[in-house]
Batch of 2 targets.
Target 1
Amino acid sequence: MVAHLVDELGAPGTIVLAGGHGSGRSHIMRAVASALQTAGRPVLRCSAREPQARDSIEHEPPGHVVLVDDAEHAAPELILSLIDRIRNGASVLCAVAADLSTDDEHRAAEWAKLLTPEHDDAPVTRYVHLNPLTLPETLQIAVEVATTPLDSSVLAALHSMSWGRPAWLIEVIRLAAQGAVIATPWPRLAPTQISESGIPTLEFAHALAQRSLTDAEIAAATTLAQLEPRTLFGHEDLVGSAAVASLVAHGVLIQTPTDPTTYGVPELFAAGMRVRTKADIVASAEQRAARTLLLQESLGVPLSDREAHFCTTITDGGEIHQQLDPARADLFRRVALDALSFGAGTECRDLLVRGAGFGATLDPLDRARAATVMHGALAGLRSLNAVPEHASGTASQRIAAIALTSQITAESPIPQQARTGAFPGADTGASERDARFVFARWNETGPVGSDTEALHRIATTHPAREVALLAGQLIDLENIKRGRRPSDPASCTERIARVTDIAVSSQPELRDLLSAAIVTEAMLALYLGDTDGSDVALYALTESLPASTRHRVWLGHLGAVGQAIASGDMARALREWELFEARLPRFLPVRLSALIRDTGSAILRTATGHVDLDGNGEDIVDDFPTQVLAYFSGRLDRIGSRVRRYDHLHESPLDTSRALDIAKLARAHVQAANEQHPVALLQCADALTEAGFWAPAAFALRAAKRIFMRRRATGSVNRCDTKLAELEAAARRVDPWFRVDLLPASEHVRLTPRESATARLVAEGLSNKAIASRLRCSVRTVESHIAHARAKLSAGDRGELAALVRQAQVPGEERERPDLRRQRLDSRLIDSMR
């Protein structure tokens, strides 16, 4: 932007830099002035608010460039001075409000003269607009400005509340540091003392409300800030046309960054104005808006999650129209069930109590869910078993009851085989028996094993699409846990599209099954390394689910986990994972919860360094998630030999048709590092970069660079540096936190068993001939082993190799031996060994 403006100022005429309040106009003006001065061009920068601005411009030599900030406040005399300079061939840059509106109508004629050429050969006025920040730009600024770590939900809130304006973004970051930003389930500010916050926009809004707005207009602004953006006509229906006209005129009700036809009140303005009016006036405005919004519900068109919640929190002190009672009752029930699905028992209870006054009721299944959340699994089982025979319900309700019974029984002290069926008296056919079988396997943690064939049959034949989906996902989950691709060859996006198709036509009582399905698909995408490619599809899927706003929160955290892992930042991955677990739906099957818990444990072990992958400590950790996380964190030397039983990363045969991409890439990387093969490492780096695995790609490039440096291959070293710079640039477009120089050192060196044995004998002082005799090989082979060991350990000669072996344990042969110390041996076996 600065370079473009400097280039434009090379020609005479007027340039208008247009942007809203907080869009960074003043910052750009300062940067342009600095760039011009650096280039040796004389420049005058002033503000139209300054009383002496006109005199400064008139005394400035004709060849100087003039930069005028806050030009929408320019007096007529100042505008005429600018017109005279432009007639004489000068260049002028004016920074103005986006719509060029002014408070004084008598300046309109002067503005017309400044912006409209008087004759055909006069320079045309050029306009440059400051576009709103994109989400990646917001993240980049937040990373540079924030002094404390920010999680994904807070970052999303910062982007939303800043309206794409850099100055507002920095202010909201400061408020977040003060603990004033509430990120979930939708962004808003906690009550803030304006005089103590030190935030200019809050103080500006406070002064504007005090000076120019009535109490009713302030109440209208604070009400609209709690609702979704809409057209001006829509706002007039909610708070009245007079209030809307005044809020637009004073720049409080402004265009949204993404859609110029919709308007809203920024939270920063509302927070600054809120203390300037009385609570009863605000309550009256909120009641009026809530009554109007309920008309949409009465038409059968659901409100958004945010506006539905708004309506349930408003106490209507006036008379409620009779025809709105059913709509309000249904609204309370829907919002309560959304809270219930995410374990918010207290919120659900309050909503149910209030909704009961309008006639809201719960069906037997929802009563059991509420009892489970509020009082525990046994209370939920009692509620289910109390359902009378005549209330057996539809097929969907019976399937939902089977699923709920299976889960809360697994959570309770009652053994699975001792449970009773829900909805007594219901006819149990083959489809329900299959559903019971699927849910029983989902609520156990043992291997699926011989049940795979039955699950395949159910996945392809069950009439309930939700049950069929979960049967197939159960098989896929078992494959993923062992580093194998799902049996379904479809891509993540294609799989998610199928789930979306099911969700659109699914019955409301099956919402818990859909929640389990989308969490499972998201976990599969994480393990497949496809969180970036499937993000859009997953977010689109949440739109077809109840409580979509809450679903997007945990999904955002999981996407941030995948991003952090790909960048090798395990500390950030751990922070995001903890929030992901805390914000998941309540009713997830036991097997899925166990996978989430185990993955979190693997992230914790890797982030804190409490990982023993070699079996040399008290606890052996060789599960696939921990092995992969160790790989992403650069700890190639800690990937233990026990992992070969999973056919993942080591020398055992690898079924490339079934292995996950990350397993194949990691295996190739480890082997290239073991062999100290720089060309193979460069090939691995290219493949890893293409997959978006930034940290492992950087580790491979750095390893190749070290080998080339030892070989004094200057050209190849420079090539590695170029690739590292390109890698960092590409990664930072996706993950602003990524820095190659902040990655941990990954000095992975692994000798083969024969190289290790040869190095040990060199350290003992044996000659090459003696070593050949001991190892039963030729002297030439011994020389080859010594040369490879020296290259891998960067030993300059035979003596240095011997010294390195004596000083530290050489990686290699001992890791291929079973750890006999960990076996339990009785006294008789010990005696026989003696």
Target 2
Amino acid sequence: MKNNQFGRMQLPLATELWELKNIHFLEADVLDTPKAQLIAFLQRAWGPLVTSPAAFDQKLSQLLATPDTTMADFLASAAPLTADIFARLALQLLQFEPETDYDIADPLSAYSTLQLPTFDVETFQTANDVAHAWYQLLSTHTKNGETYLDYLTQTGYFVPFYGQITGPVFFNGKAQAVFNPHETIHEIVYVEAPLDTDHDGKRDLLKVEVSRPKLTNSGYKAPVLYTASPYNQGTNDTFGEKITHSVDVPLTEKAPNQLTAADVQFQSLPPELPPERIPIGETVLATEHFAKEQSYTLNNYFLSRGFAVVYAAGIGTRDSDGLRDTGGPAETLSTVAIIEWLDGQRQAFTNKTDRIAIPAWWTNQHIAMTGRSYLGTLATAAATTGVDGLKTVISEAAISSWYDYYRDNGLVAAPDTFQGEDMDVLAGDVFSRMQDAGDYLGVKKDFEQVLSQLQKDQDRHSGSYTAYWDGRNYLNQVANIKADMILVHGLNDWNVKPRNVYNLWQSLRELPIHKKIILHQGQHIYINNFRSLDFTDMMNLWLSYKLFDLNNGADTLLPDVLIQDNVTAETWHPVADWPAATDQYQTLYLDQGHLTETKHQTPQIQTFNDQLSEATFKRYCDDLAGWHADLFKPNTDENALRDNRLIFKTEPLVHPWAIDGTPEITVDVAVDASVGMLSFQLVDYGDAKRLGAKPTLLAKNVLSGAYDWRTDDLYEFMPETQVTPWKMITKGHVNLQNRTHAYQDEAVVPNTFNQVHVTLQPTFYRLPAGHRLGLVIYATDFETTIRGNQNLTYQINLTESQLNLRLADNHE
């Protein structure tokens, strides 16, 4: 195991002592001797569970002070407290296993191996030395991925604080669980949005679920974590499957055009709105409540730390008004309306009929947005409006342009595992008003019209970038962002592909805001329950600063760019930027199955065909993993794809490479028809026990961050038990009619060569020495593109084709 803590503050001893007093580990000054102080700390730590002297002694007897002395015997002796004794005790308290995680005879060496923060005390001369070491211990992660103080919190350490505090309590720059989560108030209000998307002559009312600390009833003002989740009120899975599109259709020719970027620029029109409702009264008491929401475990963690948590599903969802229109301006306004209510700029009501207004009187008007995927997407969309009150966004696996989610360079390109999904399918899936038959009756025809318009506007026939997609490209409004941004994304996320976060990160570069990015090796996942990274602590540090105005230096303490290693498990690298300004450039040329650093001068043409036998085609449609494996395998008679792609490889690398940013491919290509597409994959060829595609479950229900509260499982990316011969690094696609721009359709003259330049999905990937870098060129991508099984033959002029890479420090 390797511990990586980036959200941990180093503070002066005087501050440590003050904070230990503030959380009652010290009631007054330190005691007279180091051992007496250590006993007092242990009694405090175990107090909720160990309430008699005999039980305390029993617990001490279960711990070792030296390899042959228990803590009970050591504390009763005259022997001095030494660094190795404290280290041995700390490792046991942190739940590390002797002789598995550390050498019981040499505990200090484990601090380096496990990457634990040291307590910097060689000999314990005074009780202050113990207090310093204990402070360091409380802020150090256990083997189960949480600080020791959070572990104690789960055993009930902060329960005596319940009912005695008047506001948040901080330790090491982070809010602590001193609010009783079981007394959280759960209430519902209906925010009036500046929309009438269902055209009923009344502004849309949006259901909002509020969970706030009970202390807000006594004058405490809480900051808010707001998650806009279209899934929060349920989904229509069967309906979504019913309207999913067939992808087994041919690529068809598009009429050439000479469109420019200005021709496809979205022009917004201000909606014609009914007047606002006129309240007939105002109250601070909600009249509707709920038991439990579909929650995000990171939000659960903060509910006991003085934060309020708000969920809203938005227009067209159950108990809200309006119609769903995926990714459009109305969806953004729907999201922002809740922020405006929380910031005191918009009205809400206790229900949808009585017109009794209810303000967000309980908040300090400091708001953050959280969430992954569609949830993080709406957070990004809200930030691009520059709405007041939104202080920061923690956006995970979020879409920055819907075109980059459902399209790629003029091609329909599905998110991974969702072949046939599109904007209309997603709109139908989250239109949860459908689940209340009476409500759906009144809007059914209107929603059918919305779906019909979506199907027309999304234009699956074309796949080109249009004004419709431009209106769903949040990058166009990035300059409006005022909120500080934290972006989190998986480098192996082929649902929301890495281009989405890369383009947003580049666009944020010049804005006068604080921004951070965390890139992990996962797919489309959350990372707040990972053992190797203190993500929850980092976000606690960040949110305590942004929403409580605590001067903890989070802006400078947290790395601007943090990247998880793909070779060594549980390893994270803080780097200056992504991609790095210091990258070296490497050009590789194509040469009859090889990638070389020397360009071949003699013209070389290689060909492949895109058509498979009907039986093979159907087999691959049903076995995407089998198709992907055959794509990388050598050309043998048994490989059905031997004539359907080209593979080029480097020689085994003498030195490791770190591929940074966006690989770029230029090919000179001809096809024997007026249509064609190309797909590309970069591949790591080399036998290795790679990190698993999915994180490994380490322990069930071990994380909660509060006493008797909602739990989460602990995960980590671990090396696979089996050696694998390859791994895809990144990929990309292009319609040959969109070889210049995604919005410009050009003619393809059969058997005529054209230069095509393709930027692949961005990455950061370490390629070890001895491995080979491979480039696979093919056409139909069974996982992503449409699958027409057309008889198209492609020619690649190798002499005029090349791969350009950026190579960074490989972090070895």
